[in-house]
Specification:
Elements (H helix, E strand, L loop, with lengths): L2 E8 L6 E11 L4 H8 L5 E3 L6 E3 L4 E5 L4 E6 L7 H18 L3 H6 L4 E6 L1 H12 L4 H12 L3 H4 L2 E7 L3 E7 L5 E7 L51 H5 L6
Parallel strand pairs: 2-5, 6-7
Antiparallel strand pairs: 1-2, 3-4, 5-6, 8-9, 9-10
This protein binds zinc ion.
Zinc ion binds next to loops.
Length: about 250
Protein backbone atom coordinates (compact mmCIF):
# COMPACT_ATOMS: atom_id res chain seq x y z
CA UNK A 1 0.00 0.00 0.00
CA UNK A 2 1.24 3.47 -0.85
CA UNK A 3 0.15 6.67 0.85
CA UNK A 4 0.16 10.04 -0.86
CA UNK A 5 -0.93 13.34 0.59
CA UNK A 6 -2.33 16.42 -1.09
CA UNK A 7 -0.15 19.48 -0.52
CA UNK A 8 -0.72 23.14 -1.25
CA UNK A 9 2.23 25.54 -1.41
CA UNK A 10 2.82 29.04 -2.74
CA UNK A 11 4.86 29.22 -5.96
CA UNK A 12 8.24 30.83 -5.23
CA UNK A 13 8.16 32.38 -8.70
CA UNK A 14 4.74 34.01 -9.01
CA UNK A 15 3.04 33.37 -5.68
CA UNK A 16 0.16 31.36 -7.16
CA UNK A 17 -1.22 28.45 -5.14
CA UNK A 18 0.29 25.16 -6.33
CA UNK A 19 -1.34 21.85 -5.50
CA UNK A 20 -0.11 18.33 -5.93
CA UNK A 21 0.50 14.95 -4.36
CA UNK A 22 3.51 14.15 -2.18
CA UNK A 23 4.72 10.71 -1.14
CA UNK A 24 4.24 9.82 2.51
CA UNK A 25 4.96 6.14 1.95
CA UNK A 26 5.63 4.45 -1.39
CA UNK A 27 5.49 0.71 -1.95
CA UNK A 28 8.01 0.67 -4.79
CA UNK A 29 7.46 -3.01 -5.57
CA UNK A 30 3.82 -2.34 -6.40
CA UNK A 31 4.23 1.17 -7.85
CA UNK A 32 6.68 1.06 -10.76
CA UNK A 33 5.61 4.63 -11.57
CA UNK A 34 6.84 5.92 -8.20
CA UNK A 35 10.10 3.97 -8.54
CA UNK A 36 10.61 5.54 -11.98
CA UNK A 37 9.75 8.99 -10.59
CA UNK A 38 12.38 8.61 -7.88
CA UNK A 39 14.97 7.76 -10.54
CA UNK A 40 13.91 10.67 -12.77
CA UNK A 41 13.94 13.02 -9.73
CA UNK A 42 10.26 13.85 -10.08
CA UNK A 43 9.08 12.64 -6.67
CA UNK A 44 7.46 15.40 -4.60
CA UNK A 45 8.02 17.88 -7.42
CA UNK A 46 5.07 20.25 -7.91
CA UNK A 47 4.55 22.34 -11.03
CA UNK A 48 2.96 25.79 -11.02
CA UNK A 49 0.18 25.95 -13.61
CA UNK A 50 0.46 29.74 -13.77
CA UNK A 51 4.18 30.21 -14.54
CA UNK A 52 5.47 26.70 -15.18
CA UNK A 53 8.02 26.77 -12.38
CA UNK A 54 8.70 23.43 -10.71
CA UNK A 55 9.93 22.91 -7.15
CA UNK A 56 10.63 19.90 -4.99
CA UNK A 57 8.81 20.02 -1.68
CA UNK A 58 10.82 18.88 1.33
CA UNK A 59 9.05 16.38 3.51
CA UNK A 60 9.71 12.99 5.02
CA UNK A 61 8.92 10.15 2.62
CA UNK A 62 9.36 6.41 3.13
CA UNK A 63 10.10 3.98 0.31
CA UNK A 64 9.73 0.25 0.77
CA UNK A 65 10.02 -2.76 -1.43
CA UNK A 66 8.65 -6.05 -0.09
CA UNK A 67 10.28 -8.21 -2.76
CA UNK A 68 13.73 -6.67 -2.41
CA UNK A 69 13.20 -6.23 1.36
CA UNK A 70 14.39 -2.63 1.33
CA UNK A 71 13.07 0.19 3.51
CA UNK A 72 14.38 3.73 3.09
CA UNK A 73 13.17 6.68 5.14
CA UNK A 74 14.13 9.94 3.43
CA UNK A 75 14.05 12.90 5.82
CA UNK A 76 14.36 16.50 4.60
CA UNK A 77 17.90 17.72 3.93
CA UNK A 78 17.75 20.23 6.79
CA UNK A 79 17.18 17.43 9.33
CA UNK A 80 20.57 15.85 8.65
CA UNK A 81 22.10 17.47 11.73
CA UNK A 82 19.75 15.27 13.79
CA UNK A 83 20.93 12.06 12.11
CA UNK A 84 21.84 10.24 15.31
CA UNK A 85 18.40 10.55 16.89
CA UNK A 86 16.56 9.96 13.61
CA UNK A 87 18.59 6.83 12.87
CA UNK A 88 17.74 5.45 16.30
CA UNK A 89 14.05 6.42 16.07
CA UNK A 90 13.75 4.95 12.58
CA UNK A 91 15.34 1.67 13.62
CA UNK A 92 12.83 1.41 16.48
CA UNK A 93 9.89 2.29 14.25
CA UNK A 94 10.84 -0.26 11.60
CA UNK A 95 11.38 -2.90 14.28
CA UNK A 96 7.86 -2.18 15.47
CA UNK A 97 6.32 -2.22 11.98
CA UNK A 98 8.17 -5.27 10.65
CA UNK A 99 8.35 -7.05 13.97
CA UNK A 100 5.97 -6.62 16.86
CA UNK A 101 3.02 -5.27 14.89
CA UNK A 102 3.48 -7.31 11.71
CA UNK A 103 1.85 -10.54 10.56
CA UNK A 104 3.87 -13.69 11.30
CA UNK A 105 5.26 -14.16 7.78
CA UNK A 106 6.60 -10.60 7.67
CA UNK A 107 7.94 -10.91 11.21
CA UNK A 108 9.97 -13.98 10.19
CA UNK A 109 11.77 -12.12 7.40
CA UNK A 110 12.33 -8.89 9.36
CA UNK A 111 16.05 -9.57 10.04
CA UNK A 112 16.71 -9.87 6.29
CA UNK A 113 15.39 -6.38 5.50
CA UNK A 114 17.81 -3.58 4.65
CA UNK A 115 16.75 -0.40 6.47
CA UNK A 116 18.28 2.97 5.70
CA UNK A 117 17.90 6.57 6.84
CA UNK A 118 18.82 9.20 4.27
CA UNK A 119 18.49 12.98 3.98
CA UNK A 120 17.02 14.28 0.76
CA UNK A 121 15.51 12.36 -2.12
CA UNK A 122 18.76 12.32 -4.09
CA UNK A 123 20.20 10.17 -1.32
CA UNK A 124 17.19 7.81 -1.49
CA UNK A 125 17.68 7.54 -5.25
CA UNK A 126 21.37 6.85 -4.71
CA UNK A 127 20.64 3.82 -2.51
CA UNK A 128 18.49 2.26 -5.24
CA UNK A 129 21.15 2.98 -7.89
CA UNK A 130 23.77 1.25 -5.73
CA UNK A 131 21.59 -1.76 -4.87
CA UNK A 132 20.31 -2.17 -8.42
CA UNK A 133 23.97 -2.38 -9.52
CA UNK A 134 24.52 -5.20 -7.02
CA UNK A 135 26.82 -3.11 -4.80
CA UNK A 136 26.90 -2.63 -1.02
CA UNK A 137 26.17 0.92 0.09
CA UNK A 138 28.55 0.53 3.04
CA UNK A 139 31.42 -0.14 0.61
CA UNK A 140 30.39 2.88 -1.46
CA UNK A 141 30.35 5.18 1.58
CA UNK A 142 33.83 3.94 2.52
CA UNK A 143 34.94 4.61 -1.05
CA UNK A 144 33.72 8.21 -0.75
CA UNK A 145 35.86 8.65 2.37
CA UNK A 146 38.93 7.35 0.56
CA UNK A 147 38.32 9.24 -2.68
CA UNK A 148 37.49 12.59 -1.06
CA UNK A 149 40.02 12.41 1.80
CA UNK A 150 42.45 14.83 0.17
CA UNK A 151 39.73 17.21 -1.03
CA UNK A 152 38.17 18.87 2.04
CA UNK A 153 35.89 21.03 -0.11
CA UNK A 154 34.09 18.00 -1.50
CA UNK A 155 34.47 15.91 1.64
CA UNK A 156 32.53 18.51 3.65
CA UNK A 157 29.79 18.69 1.01
CA UNK A 158 27.42 16.08 -0.36
CA UNK A 159 28.34 13.26 -2.74
CA UNK A 160 25.86 10.92 -4.36
CA UNK A 161 26.29 8.07 -6.81
CA UNK A 162 24.11 9.11 -9.73
CA UNK A 163 24.78 6.12 -11.97
CA UNK A 164 26.81 2.93 -12.17
CA UNK A 165 27.96 1.33 -15.38
CA UNK A 166 30.17 -1.64 -16.24
CA UNK A 167 33.39 0.05 -15.37
CA UNK A 168 32.69 2.81 -12.90
CA UNK A 169 30.61 4.70 -10.37
CA UNK A 170 29.65 8.23 -11.37
CA UNK A 171 29.31 10.64 -8.48
CA UNK A 172 27.63 14.01 -8.28
CA UNK A 173 29.28 16.38 -5.79
CA UNK A 174 27.95 19.52 -4.17
CA UNK A 175 30.29 21.62 -2.02
CA UNK A 176 29.01 23.48 1.07
CA UNK A 177 29.01 26.71 -1.00
CA UNK A 178 26.73 25.10 -3.59
CA UNK A 179 29.40 24.53 -6.26
CA UNK A 180 28.79 21.37 -8.29
CA UNK A 181 31.37 18.79 -9.29
CA UNK A 182 31.59 15.28 -10.63
CA UNK A 183 33.82 12.31 -9.99
CA UNK A 184 34.15 8.96 -11.71
CA UNK A 185 35.62 6.07 -9.74
CA UNK A 186 36.42 2.62 -11.11
CA UNK A 187 34.72 -0.37 -9.45
CA UNK A 188 38.08 -1.77 -8.38
CA UNK A 189 38.65 1.26 -6.15
CA UNK A 190 35.94 0.00 -3.72
CA UNK A 191 37.94 -0.49 -0.50
CA UNK A 192 38.12 -3.99 0.95
CA UNK A 193 40.36 -3.39 3.97
CA UNK A 194 40.40 -0.75 6.74
CA UNK A 195 40.86 2.87 5.66
CA UNK A 196 44.09 4.28 7.12
CA UNK A 197 43.58 7.21 9.45
CA UNK A 198 39.77 7.06 9.44
CA UNK A 199 37.64 6.05 12.42
CA UNK A 200 34.81 4.36 10.55
CA UNK A 201 33.51 2.32 13.48
CA UNK A 202 30.02 3.81 13.36
CA UNK A 203 29.43 3.38 9.64
CA UNK A 204 27.42 0.18 9.76
CA UNK A 205 25.99 0.47 13.26
CA UNK A 206 22.58 1.97 12.52
CA UNK A 207 20.40 2.77 9.48
CA UNK A 208 22.33 5.97 8.65
CA UNK A 209 24.99 4.32 6.49
CA UNK A 210 26.73 7.44 5.26
CA UNK A 211 30.19 8.97 5.09
CA UNK A 212 28.47 12.12 6.37
CA UNK A 213 28.44 10.72 9.92
CA UNK A 214 32.13 11.61 10.03
CA UNK A 215 31.66 15.21 8.91
CA UNK A 216 28.24 16.25 10.30
CA UNK A 217 28.21 16.66 14.08
CA UNK A 218 24.92 15.23 15.41
CA UNK A 219 22.71 17.64 17.34
CA UNK A 220 19.70 16.69 19.45
CA UNK A 221 16.36 17.59 17.91
CA UNK A 222 14.12 19.98 19.83
CA UNK A 223 10.78 18.15 20.00
CA UNK A 224 8.87 21.43 20.13
CA UNK A 225 10.14 22.78 16.84
CA UNK A 226 10.92 19.54 15.07
CA UNK A 227 8.40 18.64 12.41
CA UNK A 228 9.13 15.16 11.07
CA UNK A 229 7.25 15.90 7.88
CA UNK A 230 9.60 18.80 7.27
CA UNK A 231 6.75 20.96 6.10
CA UNK A 232 7.63 24.10 7.94
CA UNK A 233 9.87 25.84 10.43
CA UNK A 234 12.95 23.82 9.66
CA UNK A 235 14.91 27.01 10.09
CA UNK A 236 13.35 28.00 13.43
CA UNK A 237 14.54 26.80 16.76
CA UNK A 238 12.59 26.04 19.90
CA UNK A 239 13.48 29.36 21.54
CA UNK A 240 11.79 31.31 18.74
CA UNK A 241 8.67 29.16 18.90
CA UNK A 242 8.49 29.42 22.69
CA UNK A 243 8.60 33.22 22.48
CA UNK A 244 4.99 34.40 22.56
CA UNK A 245 4.60 37.90 21.05
CA UNK A 246 3.06 40.38 23.53
CA UNK A 247 -0.14 42.07 22.50
CA UNK A 248 0.50 45.84 22.12
ZN1 LIG B 1 4.21 30.20 -10.46
Amino acid sequence: MSTLTLARVDCAGCGAAVEGELVVMANLGARADLRAALFSREINVLRCEACGRTAQVQRTSAFMDFRRRQWIVAYPDWAERHWAELAEATAMSVTRNLGLAAPANLRAQAPSWTVRVVFGLEAAREKLVIWDAGLEDLAVERLKLVALAGQPRWLMGRAWVSSVDDGALHLRLVAPDGAEGALTLPHQSLPTGPIPGVDELGLGLDPFVSARRLTVHPEPADPLSFDLDGRAHGHRNGEELRHVPQEG
